[in-house]
Amino acid sequence: MERKLAEIPNLTAEWRRFLSVPLMEPGWHVVIDRRPSTDRAGAFAIGPTGVYALVLTEITPAAERLQRIRTHAEDTFAGLVQGRSQYAPHMLELMLLMPTATVVDTSVGIRSVDESSIRRTLLETEVAMSRGRAQQLASTVAARAQRFELISTSDAPVAKVATTEDLFDPAQLQEGERDAALARPFEEWTTFLDPEQIGLVNRTFNGPARFSGPAGTGKSVVALHRMARFAKRNPGRMLFTSFVRTLPGYHSTSFQRLAPRVGDRAEFVGLHAWTTRFLNDRQVRFNLDDTSVDTAFNLAWTKARTQLAPIESDLRYWRDELNRVIKGRGITTLAEYQKIERSGRNRIRLDDDRRAAVWTLLYEPYQERLRDRHVDDFNDVIRKAITTLRSTPAEDPYGLVVVDEVQDFTLMELRLVHQIAGGRTDSQLLLVGDGQQQVYPGGWRLADAGIPIIGRGAVLRVNYRNREAIHQYAGRIDATNSVGDLDGEPGFVLRDTEVMLPGGRVVTRHLRRAEVNDALVQAVAESQRPHADLAVIALTKKEAKDYQEVLESAGIPTLSLEKHDGTAHELVKVGTVFRAKGMDFRSVFHLSVQSAKPREQLTAGERDRAELADRQTMVALSRARDFAWHGVIVD
Length: 635
Hints:
By secondary structure, the chain is an alpha/beta fold. The protein starts with a helix and ends with a strand.
């Protein structure tokens, strides 16, 4: 290697000392620019931990020059495709080679090393690609320009440098290699994405945008990569939020692999937690008291029951009407309530007279009791946050706001995240979700929230998560969509996606309630899979708690999804479908209830609940990659 470095003209002794470090390690490659420029990296080190654009310098260059170097480097690695995967250029890092390493702004993907620290920095970073990927990436980049010289530590001699056409040809990957590559967990998808996904990562939007697509199409992965790319190109803060309070923490672990040095510039927090913290910081008074809220509703229901119970006897339906239709939409007058389309709630028809009864007998008494007790429900807290932000915008606004699982938001929550992002037509707000995966009642049309996204939407259509058998089984579930996608068009559904992973296995068991516990324990025990790969997904908190106790009693260690942050543990994860949203597992065990009555014999309210349960079951089963066990409880 020393001889090869010495043969390259105009390569200083200092350059040779730095470049010899990666070339002493197996699986590493160096691409040297024989015609260096002040606006380009002098060389690239490519190995298992990633791609590093090397800049030899005595002082930290100005930010403008560093950005020009990054832009040229990313252009050099743009469009490199292997099978269905494409290298994500924003994942490369600038490495300043200095006489003495100094403190630099590592949050934008810049590292400073000297001769004593370069080896440790290159080798101790998390693995990002296989040695084969690194070798092919290096040889393809070297073939892009005559000024590049490739020096490789590969044991196998390179008979010819791979061309771009070679890299684009899917036949270069054997089926077994392709299957293994596609089956990798998320943490290995930090460097290569589908070309369509790369296009969305790099696409520029001049205002709010929406990414839609069925389960397993990589919406969250694309959103996290957009955040990582933003972080390396912009100094602003970022927010990732969701209605599911545990999901931001789960994705925070993944984001740390994409941009490990962003630090406190990227905030991952549930919307409820963000809102209460914001109001506290602004010293806006509110009083969240679940017990008082429950009491207020129950007292109001006692008087409203006579007229409303004959329409629908389940009081949960009417609580959802208050929380997700009336207050969730910010409705303040009966006239406004009587005009709206109740998306996702239309099976139970509420004409003007019925809506007047809901308003006067339930909504107004409920509001009066909250006021008498000086108590807020969470819709009130959302409203206060919107009002506060509109009157006094943040002094240090977020440069990018990403909302995951947006289909479960209310309209008021949508308006809040738009306001958090600045509330303008050019605000950098990214909404990510899929109406078919809605697990809460009700629905909306994005236009109703006043967020303009026409021309700034995209639908992902390729499923990378589920193997074929699971994809087909989950896709057959009749999961209706009551959320308007993109420009108001119907959403693209799971069964219509292109599935990439062959194989897989689904087991269906029809059970009596008395058989459930033993059947679940037996299924988990006989799966012969590591506990870290298994998840039991229930429909309710009580069921999840019961299943966790049953498994623990059988000697099977568990971890509640309430506490799961994406870190690998040799424990079976157990939780509700609401907590499993946005996550994936190699094997999923799910139990649902089959109604004794045919669907056509259900009442309007029962039909609404059955459709919601179908969406929840589809979401639960589509969390599985390789294996799904579906226990169907027969009433």
